[in-house]
Amino acid sequence: MSRSDPGSVRDVEPEKKSAAARRVTKKTTKAVAHRVDEFLSAKGPRFRALALTHAFNAAGDTLVAVALADVLFLAPDPSEARSNVVLYLAVTLAPFAVIGPFLGGLFARFPVAYRRGLGAASAMRALVALAMIFNLANDFVLFPLAFFMLVFSRVHGISRNSLLPVTLEGAHELVAANARMAKIGVVAGTAAAVAGGGLATGLGALSESVGSRVALALSVMAFLVSTIAAQGVPFPPKPQTGSIRRGILRVARSVRLAQLATAGVRFINGFLLFLLAFAFRDEQAGLLDFTFLLGAAGVGYFLGAVVAAWLERILREEPMVVAALAIEAAAAFIAAQAFGLVAAAALAAAGGFAWGVAKLAFDGLLQRSVSHDDRGRAFVRAETLFQLAWVFGALIPTAVTIPTGGGLAAAGVLALAAQTLYVAGLIRPRPDRSQPTAPA
Fold it and tell me: pLDDT tens digits, residue range 231-263?
């Protein structure tokens, strides 16, 4: 064949283009992987392992939420949808008051349980999600499974928060480290919502509930990766024997006040989320609309994490919690004036922002104020209170049909009242006599 044969030239050119495309793809993939690794490793190699397990756990959480939104809210009969949600909330609420003290006692006696609980919780969540795949149509089994999914989520979150100071090079910038962890969770959750929600919606058009099963299958894989990543997280230092023998949890008054105010933010968040969800349900919204609502809340939480890390440089944690309540009140009042899809998304984003700022500020305050030996129990108590507040807030618009405008205005008034009470508590100084409480 001559060198000028046009056939050989035509054969070579596609090969060159294909090779160039592969090189560009490989280079781009390496650059993205490098940026992701830098994002996860910003606070050091030990922080990276904790960030990885958190990222995949957050992705699994989002995929489970997408799957359950289809089952809970999109029932053909509106009364059935409400009864499903009431049952779900009741199942998550009833035993939680018992689980909280149990976890507190476990962490108090076996501090190594923080580290063990991190991986074990993810592994158990993978098993629960797998069981959910085969029981989506069986409410008698599905709701107890949802409860266990929530319990193991709390175990993972409490273990992660308790171990965070151990993964840092120094005990400074705790709010910034919490904010970094929150941003990682939001990025992972958003990616899961886009990929899982889109795939579930597309496949859901082919067959009933297949979209939810696909989302749950993806969550199983995410929880398994989280389990593997947890093995790289360091163990906490050995506890002081005196604190274990004492079995008493002492928390500063500033922490107690911030905890109550943050619970107020969480209560209003639960109320607003379910008020919006049922408003969407009444408008015959689909799974994609619910995914959009969750995504807006996630974006708001991400922005809250970004702002919280910046605010830490100029403010203490207490004013950050006050600001969160003010933002939530303003957003509710504005949305009440002209409610619609855009207003709902903006309100969900504002609620996520307020929760992000308040929660990260409280976490940093608790981590700085409470000793390592007591930190796990303190987080158990706080997380239990926050979960109960969220459930009680969600139960109100679920059990009672509330006009959207009136409900939003009521949420704004409640946020202002919580803000006023918290500020009054802060400006009325009292000697900090941390009274011993019953063993957690």
Answer: 888 776 665 554 444 455 667 788 889 999 999
Cβ contacts of 38-45, under 8 Å, gap ≥ 24: 39/184, 40/184, 42/180, 43/167, 43/168, 43/169, 43/177, 43/180, 44/167, 44/168, 44/169
In the numeric block, the tokens 């035509």 are attached to: 10
Q: In angstroms, how far is the first alpha carbon of the chain from the final one?
A: 86
Q: How many residues does the chain have?
A: 440
* Three-state DSSP state, 340: coil
Residue with tokens 């969407």: 280
Domains of the chain: 43-233+251-427 (1.20.1250.20)
Residue 423's Cα: distance from chain center in Å? 27
Calpha distance 283→286 (Å, rounded): 9
Q: Are 115 and 235 in contact (CB under 8 A)?
A: yes
**305 CB contacts (<8 Å, ≥6 apart)?**
178, 179, 180, 182, 183, 186, 356, 360
Note the Cα 233 to chain centre separation in Å. Answer: 20
CA quadruple 367, 372, 373, 379: dihedral sign: positive
8 A C-beta contact, residue 29 and residue 181: no
Structure tokens at 203: 């496949």
Kindly give the residue spans of alpha helices, DSSP state H, lying in 168-252: 174-204, 210-230, 241-246
As a whole number, the mean pLDDT across the chain is 75
- 131 C-beta neighbours (distance < 10 Å), count: 17
Which residues contact residue 53 at a Cβ distance below 8 angstroms, ignoring those fewer than 6 apart? 118, 119, 122, 160, 226, 227, 229, 230, 233
Q: What pLDDT digit, counting tens, does each position of 294-351 carry?
A: 778 878 888 888 888 788 778 788 889 998 999 989 988 888 887 666 778 888 889 8
- Cα 75 from Cα 67, distance rounded (Å): 13
Whether residue 297 contacts residue 349, with contact meaning beta carbons closer than 8 Å, is answered with yes
Q: What is the DSSP letter of 306?
A: H
Distance between alpha carbon 376 and the CA centroid of its chain, in Å? 18
pLDDT at 354 over 60: yes
Show the tokens assigned to 290. 């619910």
| Helix 253-282 and helix 287-311, axial crossing angle in degrees, nearest 10 | 160
